Amino acid sequence: MKFWKKALCASAVGVATLAQAQPAPQAVTVYSSRIENLLKPTLDQYTQQTGVKINLLTDRGGSLSERLAAEGKSSPADVLITVDMGNLHNAAERGLLRRIDSPMLNANVPANFRDPGNRWWGLSQRERTIFYAADRVKPAQLSTYEDLADPKWKGKLCLRTSKQTYTQSLVAMMIAKHGVQQAEAITRGWVNNLAGDVFTNDNSLLKAIAAGQCDVGIANTYYYGRILSREPEFGQGVKLFWANQERTRAARTSTCRARASPPMPRIPRARASCSSGCRPKACRRPTPTAPSRARSTPGPRPTRSCRPGASSRQAR
């Protein structure tokens, strides 16, 4: 965030110096799948310091990609902010994002957090790891994502649906580390160990562990933090275990704390993409999904509106 504050300050100085010589700055249109009330304060601050108006449109990441594809060259979008490198990789491969050369972004975002083709940059990171029922599982029994495919977990595992990009990215990491054949064996082991239907969201998955529907599961840490902020006692029954410590945990977008992704500097008519996660090697190839044994359980659906400044209520 310090970098963005510096960038915003530098932009503000530039606007003030050239105010009399330059016309009013053009507005920037941002398509975002992030929660509006987390992102908008940062965008408003940017507007206050630079004079650049931000037109914000929120929707699901997949819907935004389809909108960009339908709008084509006539799209008003300048910036795409979404979650997970899988969404960004797919958008880039579909030709929806333009390559831009930004020394500022390249100097401040490490190479492993950005697209080698300069089509997107990561802004923040969050973790996806193992959660377990404290009264039924001991930490010594846990180790890796791969170990959850062991028959000892049969009927005890909860997972999110393979239709979700978080699961797809986790499988992509397995492919990058183990190859397609072994990764498929791991995912089949997960499916064989499922305690029931897969889940449409991590919040329901964590609640299922607490209710005794399963003993272990994989979820993003910030869902856990959100529950704890409302129900501190939840942490007594469901606990977090950092998986694959001898290797690499699955990095996802954002952090376990709700955090807004800062806007990119103005890039005239060049559509770039912003996310908040790292880009493992697997993102350079297609990311097959884990096989799903059953349809996902019904979950709360978000309220969305496809208009600039519309509110998005889905928890990310």
Layout of helices and strands, plus pairs?
Elements: H1 2-17, E1 28-32, H2 36-50, E2 54-58, H3 61-71, E3 79-81, H4 85-93, H5 103-108, E4 120-122, E5 125-133, E6 157-158, H6 165-178, H7 180-192, H8 202-211, E7 216-220, H9 221-230, H10 234-237, E8 238-241, E9 250-253, E10 272-275
Parallel strand pairs: 1-2, 1-3, 3-10, 4-10, 6-7
Antiparallel strand pairs: 5-7, 5-8, 5-9
Helix pairs in contact: 6-7
Number of domains: 2
Low-confidence stretches: 1-20, 251-274, 276-316
Q: How many DSSP H or I helices?
A: 10
What is the CATH third-level topology name of the largest domain? D-Maltodextrin-Binding Protein, domain 2
Number of extended strands: 10
Radius of gyration: 21 Å
Distance between the termini: 20 Å
The CATH homology group name of the largest domain: Periplasmic binding protein-like II
Tell me the major beta sheet.
5 strands, parallel
Average pLDDT score: 76
Global outline: globular
Q: Indicate the CATH architecture of the largest domain.
A: 3-Layer(aba) Sandwich
CATH hierarchy, class of the largest domain? Alpha Beta
Describe this structure in words.
The chain has 316 residues and is α/β, with parallel strands linked by helices. It folds into two domains: 149 residues, D-Maltodextrin-Binding Protein, domain 2, CATH 3.40.190.10; 126 residues, 3-Layer(aba) Sandwich (D-Maltodextrin-Binding Protein, domain 2). Helices cover 34% and strands 14% of the residues. It has a five-stranded parallel sheet with strand order 2-1-3-10-4, with helices on both faces. The longest helix has 16 residues. The N terminus and C terminus are likely disordered.
